[in-house]
Amino acid sequence: MSEEPMFKFTTGSTSGVVRTGLLSLPNRQAIKTPHYLALASRGAIPHLTQDNVTKHTHICGAYMAAEDCKFVLSQQSLA
Fold this sequence. Notes:
Blueprint (H helix, E strand, L loop, with lengths): L7 E4 L9 E4 L6 E3 L4 E2 L10 H7 L5 E2 L6 H9 L1
Parallel strand pairs: 4-5
Antiparallel strand pairs: 1-2, 2-3
């Protein structure tokens, strides 16, 4: 049984310029690096409304802690 890796990171340039690369995750759009990943709190980026994030930024990823997903997961397990 072949197992697909959790993620793949490919580097572009390595010397003389900014180190660039591509972060690929299964079933997700690849993220060009360097890139900003927003820190989310309970699924939202603090101090920014959803419409402003969409309209004024190009953020394509966010980091959120696993405990922020606990409520959703517990609701799904009850169904």
